Amino acid sequence: MTITSEHEFKTCDPEQVWEKLMDIDLLGGIIADGRGLSQVGRNRYEGRLPVTLGPIQGRLRTTLKLKKLDRPKRFTLKVYGKWHDQRVSGKGTFTLRKIGGSTKVKYRGKLTLFMRGPLRVRIDHPGPLQVMAQNHVKSAMKELFRKIDEECCKENGNAH
Fold first, then answer.
1. Cα separation of 9 and 146, whole Å?
2. What distance in Å separates the CA atoms of residue 147 and residue 25, rounded to the nearest whole number?
3. Closest by Cα among 57, 75, 74 to 66
4. What confidence score (pLDDT) does residue 86 get?
5. Residue-level pLDDT at 73
6. Phi, psi of 112 (to 5 degrees)
7. Are residues 131 and 120 in contact, defined by beta-carbon separation less than 8 angstroms?
8. How confident is the chain (160 residues) per 10-residue block, as mean pLDDT?
9. Which uninterrupted H or E stretch holds 33?
10. What is the 3-state secondary structure (H, E, C) of 66-120?
């Protein structure tokens, strides 16, 4: 599944937005639902993402990697997660572009979900888990952009 998102930061320059996107505490607080991420290597982080599927609840063991960093223009975020026999992998690119006094950020990525069926055969999983993952990513992007906007406004002395 392909996920896209974009946002224009009216009071932020690309360097400010880049700094916020690289703030692992900010990113981890949103992606890992306030539980944060731990650095386990250069540009590599791990955390536990809460998962709720109907009455079933658990934590998705998640690894994030920041790749192809081209400050302050673009970077790629790779994600891998595991929850029982469910697997999630994704890769997306953030692109930053200065437009006058603002910065436009575009995100485009792919998310793949699959599970192991009988005899450990891989089965692509288009069901409820996919919808849940897609909604979580969209919601996380919206919240991430909102937080960055809020912090930039404070730093630049503007009302949010």
1. 9
2. 12
3. 75
4. 74
5. 97
6. -120, 130
7. no
8. 89 92 85 76 88 69 92 94 79 95 93 66 59 78 91 79
9. none
10. EEEEECCCEEEEEEEEEECCEEEEEEEEEEEEEECCEEEEEEEEEEEEEEECHHH
**Residue 146 confidence (pLDDT):** 92
Q: Which amino acid is residue 113, in one-letter code?
A: L
Q: End-to-end CA distance of the chain: give it in Å, rounded.
A: 33
CB 149 within 8 A of CB 12: yes
Residue pair 64/43 in contact (Cβ under 8 Å)? The answer is no
| Token pair belonging to 82 | 């595991």
Residue 99's pLDDT is 93
Contact 144, 129 (CB under 8 A): no
